[in-house]
Amino acid sequence: CIKLSLRDCKRSTGKSKRSTRHQSGARQTLHKIRSTMASGGSRGTITPCAGFDAEAEAQGMRKAMKGFGTDEKAIIAIVLKCDRAQRQEIIKSYKTNFGKDLIKDLKSELSGHFEDAVIGLMMRQFEYDAYLLNKAIKGLGTNEDILTEVMCSRSNAEIKAIKQEYLQNYKRELERDLAGDTGGHYKRLMISLVQAARDESTSVDIEKAKADAQKLFKAGEGQLGTDESQFNVILATRSYPQLNAIFEQYGKLAQRDILNSIEREMSGDLKEAMKAVVMCARNTPEYFAERIYKSMKGLGTNDDMLIRLLVSRSEVDLQDIKETFLRQYKKSIHKWLDSEISGNYRRLMQGLVGTN
Question: Residues in the chain with pLDDT < 50?
Answer without folding.
Answer: 1-41
